[in-house]
Amino acid sequence: MVTKFYQHILAMAFAISEINENPKILANVTLGSHILDSYYDVRLTYCSTLGLLFKSQRFIPNYKCETQKNLVAIIGGLDSETSFHMADILGLYKTPQLSYGSFATEEMVMAKFPFFYRTVPNESHQYMGIIQLLLHFGWTWIGLLAVDDESGERFLKNVEPLLSKYGICLAVTFRIPKQINWENTDDLLRIFSNRHKFFKDNKVNTFIFYGDSMSIASFNSITILADSKFKGNILFRKVWIMTGQIDFAATGLQIALQIDFQFFQGAISFTVHSNEIPGFQKFLQNVKPYQSQGDDFLKEFWEQAFTCPLPEPQQPVNVGKTCSGEERLEDVLGHVFEMHTTGDGYSIYNAVYAVAHALHSLYASKSSHSSTMGTKTVELQDLHPWQLHPFLQGLSFNNSAGEMISFNDNKEMEGGFDLINLVMFPNNSFLKVRVGRVDPSASKGENFSIHEEMIVWQSRFDQMVPLSVCNSPCYPGNLKKKKEGNKFCCYDCEECPEGKISDKKDMDDCFKCPEDQYPNKDHDQCIPKKISYLSYQDPIGIALASMALSSSLMTALVLGVFIKHSDTPIVKANNRDITYTLLVSLLLCFLSSLLFLGQPSKVTCFLRQSAFGIIFSVAVSCVLAKTITVYIAFMATKPGPSMRKWVGESLTNSIVLSCSLLQGAICTMWIVKSPPFPAMNKESVAGQIVLECNEGFVVMFYIVLGYMGLLSLISLTMAFLARKLPDSFNEAKFITFSMLIFCSVWLSFVPTYLSTKGKYMVAVEIFSILASSAGLLACIFSPKCFIILLRPELNNREQLMWKKTSRI
Hints:
rod-shaped; 23 helices; single chain; Rossmann fold; eight-stranded mixed sheet
C-alpha cells in the first residue's frame, strides 16, 4: 500500500461529508461512495469498474444504507493508464468520469472518451513551464528520466522538440520501470549501469523526472541496489525537476526498510495548483481507526503508516508492539502521509463538488419541468448518469477555498501548476515550499513566475545557483562556434570580428553597432561616437586660423604699400591694376580658408569650394596674365614684330576675365547639378561621427582642381620660357618660383587628401590653400617690397632703364 494516497480517500470522504451537511446543495439527499483499488493492474481495473457499475459494495461515512443507490459518476483514476482502462467501460454506459490524474492530450480524450472529464490542467502548460524553468536558470545540458509506459513515451515525443527549439539539449534519456521486479535485480542494475556515467558527469546537474509516484518509488529502489555496486550515492548533487504526476510517496516495504529521499533535497516539483481546504486538517486530525466504519483501507493504512499492527477492538493493547489507535497523523513523515492538501486531494475535492453541483442543477431542472407539466416530483433515483453531462460542461462555482471551478471546452479544469521546492530534513521528513506558479490564465510574460531567493538547493553545490551546461558560456564579446560531432549545446567560444559586438551570453552571431555608435575594445557594448569636425578650438584649427589671419594681414600690408607707392615705376611695371587684383584675390584666398573651419552648415558648405575655386582661378589668371604680358612685351621690342598690337591692358584684362568666368561657369554647373551639403560621416573614422561637407557631385570638385592646375601649368610654362629675358627686373623669374611652389603644393594635395580621413582632410585642404597662396605672395611680391621699402634708390625709371641698356 502507498500510504500517502490514503489522503485521496479522505479528501473524497470530507467533501461528501460537507455536501451532506449543506442544506443548499441536494437538500434531503445523501451522497454516498464506493471506493475500490485498481492495484495498478489492468485486469483488476476492469473488474473494479464493473464492480462499481453492478455490485452493491459501498462505503458511506456516518450513514448505514441497506439499499443499493444509483451510481451517478465515477472519480478516478490516479494515472492516465488506469483512467483510460476505466473509460473503456464507462463510455459504453455514458457514465461521467472525472479523472484527477490524467494528463493526456485533449485530442486523444475528445476523440476516444467523450464522457471523460479532468480536474487537472492541460499538460502542455506543464511542458512550457519546464522550458521556462530551464531557461530561467540557464540549464541547457540536462538528463531526462521517464516512466517506461505509453505516457512516458508521449512525454518524450512532446518535450524533446520543445527542448531543441529553445536551445536545450538532452545529455541522456533514462527509462524507469513502473514497478520493480525484485526477482530480476540484475536487469535493473544493468539498466542503471548503462547510464551510470551520466549521473557521475558534473556537467549534467539537472534531471527531469517524468512518471508517477510508483515510478519514483521504483527509482528509489534502483538507487539502493546501485549504491551497493557504485560506492557512494551518485545522485546527490543533482537538481531534480519532478512533473505534476509525481508525489513523494513510499510503498509499505520502503517505509519498513526506512528508505529515505535525501538525494531529492532541493528538488523542484510541478504540482497541480491547490489551496488549503478549510477544515480539512482538522478532519484529518480526527481520523481514528476505531471510529470510522465501512472503511476497509483504514486498518492497513494505519498499520503501515505507524509500522505497528492494529489489534481488534476487543483485544488488549500490547504497548510497544501494537498500535493503540490514538496515534496522530501529523507525526508521520511527509512521504508516508501529508496533513496539507496535496494537488491530487484538491482535485478530488473539486471533482466531488462538481458532481454535486451538476446533480443539483439537473434535479432542479427536472423538478421545475415536472411542476410546470403538473406531474409528480422527480426523484433522484429516476435520473440517469448520462443526463449529467450537459450540466457538467456548463458548470461554474466557487469552492470553499474561494477559487472558481469550471470545465473548459476540452472538459478540463484551468488551474495551472504550482512550483514546489522540496526541503529535506535529516529525519527524512520534508517541507514543501511554494516558490512559483505556472498560470495559463495570466497575460503573456506573467504566466510563469518563480521566487529564486526562496529555493533551497543541495548543500553539495559549489555555486549559489547550480549550473547544468555542457561547457562554460560564451560571454559578451564572443560568439558560439559549433563543435563538430557534438550536440549544439556543446560549443567553443570565438571573439567577435572587428567592427561587431555581442552583448549577451551564448550569442550565435555578433552584430554591428548602430551607425552613431562603435564597438568598445572588448566587443561587448556599443559606445556613442564622438562628434568630430575641425573647430576653432582645436589646436590644428587654431594654428590654421592664425596662419590664415596673419597671412591676410600680411597681404593687406603689401597691398597698402603698393597703393601708397602706386606712382613708382616698380608698381607701375607689368600692369598695376592686375597687381592690385592679384593681391586682393590672394587676400580673399587666405580669408576663404576660414570657411573650412567650424561646424559645417548649409551656407559654408555651399560657399567654400566654389569661393575657393573662383578666387584661386582669379589669382592664377592674374599670374598667367602677368607672365603673358612679360613675354609679349619683350617680343614686341624686337625689330619688325607683329606683337606690338597685343601689348596693353586689354589683353591682360581679357585673360583674367575669361579664365575666371570659365571657372565660375564650372562652379555654377556644380551648384545647380548637385551642390555640397552638410553631412554626418559615420564610417570613415572609427569611434567618431565626422561632420563634413558632402561634395555632392564629387567629379566637379576634381574638375575645379584640374582647371586650376591647367592654368597654373600654363603660367609655369610661360614663366619658365620668359625667365631669361633681358630686363633689369624680370618678374618672370619670381613667377616661375611661385608657380613651382603652387604646383608642388597642389600635386601633393591630391594623394594626401585622399589618404586622410575626417577633420584632417579639411586641414590638408586649408593648409594647401594657405601654402600655395603664401608661395605666390612671397615669391612675387617680396622682391618688390624689398626694393620699395629698403632700396628706394632702385625704384626709378632711369635705374631700371640703365640696367636694361647695359645688358643690351
